[in-house]
Design a protein that fits this description.
Elements (H helix, E strand, L loop, with lengths): L4 H5 L8 E4 L4 E5 L5 E9 L2 E9 L5 H16 L4 H13 L1
Antiparallel strand pairs: 1-2, 2-3, 3-4
Protein name: DUF4102 domain-containing protein
InterPro entries: Integrase_DNA-bd_sf, Integrase_DNA_bind_dom, Phage_Integrase
GO biological process, one term: DNA integration
């Protein structure tokens, strides 16, 4: 079940960081200081990794889910998000 805005807004800090799951490996990480950040976990070539998509509520549900879907497409094409950023940077320099 997808995370709702109400659930995300009502998330209280705890002694330890905890995750509020959304869908398809996307979650909101709630830190002890109350900071909340979107994070997407993935596995590539047998290694687990992840990418952050920005703080909540500054990064909306719609935008973060769009970024998750774009990242999934990149992974499906055989590249990691960091490889894609590096390639895009290299192309923009030429």
């Amino acid at each position: 079940m997808a995370l709702t805005d109400k659930q995300a807004r009502s998330a209280k800090p705890s002694d330890k960081p905890y995750k509020l799951a959304d869908t398809l490996s996307l979650y909101l990480l709630v830190k002890p200081n109350g900071f909340r950040i979107w994070y997407f976990k993935y596995r590539f070539e047998g290694k687990e990794s992840g990418v952050s998509f920005g703080p909540y509520p500054e990064t909306s549900f719609a935008l973060v889910r769009e970024k998750r879907d774009a990242t999934r497409r990149v992974l499906k094409s055989g590249f990691t998000p960091s490889q894609q950023r590096r390639d895009e940077k290299r192309l923009s320099m030429n």
